[in-house]
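Extended Data, panel c. Modelled sequence:
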Amino acid sequence: MYYDPDVKGDHGLPHDPFKALVSPRPIGWISTIGADGVVNLAPYSFFNAVSYFPCYVMFSSSGLKDDPMKHSWRNAEETGEFVCNIVSTELADAMNLTAKHVPKDVNELEMAGLTPEPSEKVKPPRVKEAPAHLECEYWKTIDLPTNNPKFKHGVVFGHVIGIHINDDIIVDGQVDVTRYNPLARLGYMDYTSVEKTFSMKRPDDLALGRKVLGDKPYTIKTST
């Protein structure tokens, strides 16, 4: 099939398949503090790392029915800081709860029964239960065109200035994602978890005989 994504309903399906095709997507569980001092925590599946050395991440946000900017977006811009908490599969229910649209004065960490933990370089707290955290200094927002003038869309970029990793997920000097099974978003209301990984040597590494991790072209690893 073929359809024009800018023509509403052109796909002829019950639901738009775009997000099901661009998947799985990592979830950025963004914690911020508003200018009023209220803590906010919300998940974003349009999230990813965009560079390293220096490390930068982004999350893409839209507006709300009663506010042109979501709380995380506004807080990051106004205070210049945010934390990305990595979501493990066991935190799926808590993550989903923090996706609820609530008033700005509601602290979602408290609402979800999560434990705030102080950060090293930024004011927003980390989610203690998360297996890793990226402390970020807000860099800039790129506004995106929108087909609905009532809503804004923007990509928020942050410079990662501090990283916390639970020692339990480090094995032989490497982060082992099968120790915590990161949660990822699919299309519709579907999610998946990373329970199996495999490694491949790059063609240039094989051709040049470079020493790389593992001694086989494919190395399969599953969670236990």
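The two ends are 40 Å apart (CA to CA). This feature is highlighted in the accompanying rendering.
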